[in-house]
Amino acid sequence: MSDTPPLLQVTNLCKVYRTRTASVTAFQGVSFTVHRGEVVCLLGPSGCGKSSLLLTIAGLQPADGGEVRLEGQPLREPHPQVGVVFQNPCLLPWRNVAGNIALGLQLRHQRLDSSQVRRRVHSVLCGVGLELFSRHYPHQLSGGMAQRVALARALVRKPVLLLLDEPFASLDAHTRQHLQCVLLQMVHQYATTCLMVTHDIDEALFLADRVLLMSARPGHIEQEWRVDVPHPRRYRDPQMLHLHATVMDHLARHSALNDSEKEVLDWVI
Predict the structure, then answer these.
(1) What does 104-120 look like in DSSP terms, one character per residue?
(2) How far apart are CA 158 and CA 83, in angstroms?
(3) First vs last Cα of the chain: how many Å apart?
(4) Which uninterrupted H or E stretch holds 62?
(5) pLDDT tens for residues 34-79?
(6) Of the candidates 122, 87, 84, 82, which has an alpha carbon nearest to the alpha carbon of residue 102?
(7) What are phi and psi for residue 259, nearest 5 degrees?
(8) At what angle do helices 143-155 and 114-127 cross, to 10 degrees?
């Protein structure tokens, strides 16, 4: 995989938020690649700039330095081949499930007739297990169902790159594990490459081919692990437990500097 050109290349990326009186660096000097077909998880404590980094890669906010390239071309604004899924499903309450999913196919860059749209929507509905709920409205859905709609809405466009910002963070443990499996199944079915933000070590190890750890002072990539455990993975597999312990040991050693830095890593408990 490393012998092929990367699908996504992030080079020395930086983002600074400014007000009248102050400026805060969200992340700086961030460089990494994602190859076609990979699932890469971006792991880090709250406030380290993970979500800001994802928004910048998606072209939803400008960078203050560095560059992002998709298939070798600069990526500075939302791209039709890049899908984004947020923690909040962001469904339109006046559209039913099928209508919310079809929204991604009704943009100007898509030239599909109504029968093609229906086929594509039905296909992803079946993929996420919601084919019987196509006429339901967002207020009639559970949190897990709504997040499946959001995932289907992104995948119906058949993006080459799917960006996910903690999409399962607000769900209960059982629903979260189920949707992690749904995500892997859909990514494989649609041959989509994934970059996912998470603060959950187990989730990152369960999903990812590689895990990138962001530091909190300010955000940059400080460590990388490859997860060479075949799917389907089990949380309590000895290899998974060993990797979890390795990540935790790294965090413990790097959190021993002072009390304020220890507080930053409370998310691992």
Answers:
(1) GGSSTT----HHHHHHH
(2) 8
(3) 34
(4) none
(5) 999 999 999 987 778 899 999 999 999 999 999 999 999 999 999 9
(6) 122
(7) -65, -40
(8) 130
- C-alpha 132, offset from chain centre: 27
Question: Residues near 223 by Cβ (< 8 Å), separated by ≥ 6?
Answer: 212, 213, 250
Distance of CA 65 to the CA centre of its chain: 22
Strands 210-214 and 221-226: antiparallel
Distance, in Å, from the CA atom of 166 to the CA atom of 231, rounded to the nearest integer, reads 21
Whether the upstream peptide bond of residue 232 has omega within 30° of 0, thus cis, is yes
What is residue 9's three-state secondary structure?
Answer: strand
Which run of H or of E encompasses 80? none
Nearest Cα residue to 40 out of 251, 217, 189, 225? 225
Q: Are 226 and 38 in contact (CB under 8 A)?
A: no
Give the number of other Cβ atoms within 10 Å of residue 199's Cβ: 17
- Please, are residues 170 and 237 in contact by the beta-carbon 8 Å criterion? no
Q: What is the pTM of this model?
A: 0.90
Q: What are phi and psi of 90, to 5 degrees?
A: 55, 45
Question: Tell me: the pLDDT tens digits for 178-233?
Answer: 999 999 999 998 899 999 999 899 999 999 999 999 987 677 898 999 999 998 89
Burial tier of 33 (Cβ tally within 10 Å: 0-12, 13-18, 19+): middle
Residue 159 contacts by C-beta under 8 Å, 6 or more apart in sequence?
A: 80, 81, 82, 83, 192
Backbone φ and ψ of 97, nearest 5°: -60, -50
Indicate if the pLDDT at residue 16 is higher than 80: yes
Burial of 258 (0-12, 13-18, 19+ CB in 10 A): exposed
Distance separating alpha carbons of residues 135 and 86, to the nearest angstrom:
23
Could you give the dihedral angle defined by the CA atoms of residues 208, 76, 223 and 33, in that order, rounded to the nearest 10 degrees? Answer: 60
